[in-house]
Amino acid sequence: MSSAFYILFFPLWIQVLVCRNYMGNMDMNEIDHFMPILMKREEEAEMTPMVSHGSSHFLWIKHSNLYLVAMTKKNANAALVFSFLYKIIQVFKEYFKELEEESIRDNFVTVYELMDEVMDFGFPQTTDSKILQEYITQQGHKLEVGAPRPPATVTNAVSWRSEGIKYRKNEVFMDVIESVNLLVSANGSVLRSEIVGTIKLKVVLSGMPELRLGLNDKVLFEITGREKSKTVELEDVKFHQCVRLSRFENDRTISFIPPDGESELMSYRLNTTVKPLIWIESVIEKFSHSRVEIKGGKEYMMRAHFGLPSVESEELEAKRPITVNFEIPYFTVSGIQVRYLKIIEKSGYQALPWVRYITQSGGENKHTDIYTHP
Predict the structure, then answer these.
(1) If we measure between CA atoms, which residue out of 170, 88, 166, 164 comes closest to residue 129?
(2) Which of 77, 187, 256, 371 has the greatest number of C-beta atoms within 10 Å?
(3) Of 3.30.1340.30, 2.60.40.1170, 3.30.360.10, 3.30.565.10, which CATH number belongs to 171-275+326-361?
(4) pLDDT tens profile 192-236
(5) How many Å apart are CA 314 and CA 96, to the nearest integer?
(6) CATH number, span 4-137
(7) Could you report the per-residue pLDDT of 135-151, keeping only the tens digit for each?
(8) In angstroms, rounded to a whole number, what is the distance separating the alpha carbons of residues 131 and 316?
């Protein structure tokens, strides 16, 4: 819960671009104390994501040349406030492509309209840009006679999906993407390993379908007495708001009415020991004055010659860190599997689910469009 929200521009001096006092209980001049406190903390190497002045608390993040600051006098949920700040950045970027001082100045009306919609009396409301774009546009609004009616998606129980969606061919494309973060020391020992997984959807379905997803979840298999089957113990699971959390907590069933188009259904993390999928051993030979040769090893042989300026030093430099980017289709490191993906819609139409597995190095990579049935 946030009482007030500011976007600050700080070139040579503090300048408030936009602000909104949601609860009316804040002195808007309190923001003048924020930047001096922050600069003092920076000089003392005590930077923190929250600073205080008297009974006022400033929770802030920096993006480009802007500071986004939420201010409160209450014992607010800090995690919720920071989640909102990052979400509002995402909303602004989807509207303006880039969030910076110039884009804010060029779109003051739209910015204030968005700020009024995403939060009400200090509580976050609709932050889905697809829904917001249905009734907040950058072309402005025409005056209508009579009381304005809110869009159905806002008042509907399923606010993330519009009514009356129709497609000729009904399909669901699911990507199970696992990113492997692995740090290996020079002597070959694994210092840190982590698997970060996401399940992304591209939904092309008519009506208001209900989807049910079954995974080889360890907890589910233990409940149903199938402990001998190959399972995955998911940690730090995060769901899209469409997932019925109460049902998942009761019987681990992932049931939901999906958003139309592309969305991220869930994410998870596994802190587990991972054997390196790709192993690299480098050998560097230094030749006199002007040439260095690196030889590749193991499965693939690589020879590379670099033309260098005159090198007089005979000292061998330490081996440089090596970063490997890779992508492996049809494979997940954790062993997670989609056991089923059921599509239920009252009209009874037939729909095809498609599933694709991808393992990649940490970070986002492009992948080919090859799907299989679950």
Answers:
(1) 88
(2) 256
(3) 2.60.40.1170
(4) 888 999 999 999 999 999 999 999 888 777 777 666 668 888 888
(5) 54
(6) 3.30.450.60
(7) 777 654 433 444 455 55
(8) 59
